[in-house]
Amino acid sequence: MYEKTYPSKRFNITLDFLKKHISTNESILDLGVPNPFSKIMDENGYSVKNTKGEDLDNDQTTLLKEDYSVLTAFEIFEHLLNPYTILENVKCNKILISIPMRLWFSSAYRSKTDKWDRHYHEFEDWQLDWLLEKTGFKIVDSIKFTHPVKKIGFRPLLRYFTNRYYLVYAEREKR
User: Fold this and answer.
1) Residues 6 or more apart in contact with residue 97 via CB below 8 angstroms
2) CA-based angle 117:87:37, to the nearest 5?
3) CB-based burial, 2-39: b 16+ in 10 Å, e otherwise
4) Do residues 70 and 95 make contact, with C-beta atoms less than 8 angstroms apart?
5) Residue ranges of the chain with per-residue pLDDT less than 70
6) Which residues 6+ apart lie within 8 Å of 131 measured at CB?
7) The sheet that has 27-30: what strands, in order across it?
8) Is 132 in contact with 170 (CB distance < 8 Å)?
9) What is the model's pLDDT at position 6?
10) pLDDT value, residue 148
11) Is the Cα dihedral 128, 18, 58, 33 positive or negative?
12) SS3 of 45, please?
């Protein structure tokens, strides 16, 4: 599907998971600015709005003002200091979240050139599960998958066998 331009394995798995749980007649608020995956969702018939790049740790106005029935947060929670506040302010009752999982053989990601492109959290699966539970969400489905890289070495070899991403679909009872 998205072989050349995009991280095909991750995007294909995420799109299949989205299609499994969310119909195209539901409106999606995608955390983060427009990105390659929000474009893929749009190309596949989903109605998607993105946040505008505001600091979501301090400003959840978009979460409260926009009209949406599903929230997606694909590789966004690891950049936030307080994802709990985000989940508390979500208006909808359906969410899809993916996170890069903490790897024992690699330190947390930190860009040397971009002060925003850093991972404050690198979750283990149980930590995201607990965060969802504390904010009233029940996990309906989840998957983990690897992220191989085309490099030679010990860590690239480990990436073939060690799950890197955790993708969750959760719902909460109507508030």
Assistant:
1) 72, 73, 74, 77, 128, 132, 167, 168, 170
2) 50
3) beeeeeeebbeebbebbeeebeeeeebbbbbeeeebbe
4) yes
5) 1-7, 102-121, 148-149, 154-159, 161, 175
6) 83, 84, 87
7) 47-50, 27-30, 70-74, 94-100, 163-171, 138-146
8) yes
9) 47
10) 65
11) positive
12) coil
The string of DSSP letters for 64-112 reads: HHS--SEEEEES-GGG-S-HHHHHHH--SSEEEEEEEBP-TTSPPPB-S
| Cα 145 from chain centroid (whole Å) | 13
Domain 8-171's class?
alpha beta
Residue 77 has a CB neighbour count (10 Å cut-off) of 24
Which structure tokens are listed for 145? 């998958």
Look at residue 10 in the predicted model and tell me its pLDDT. Answer: 87
Q: Which pair of tokens denotes residue 106? A: 């690699």
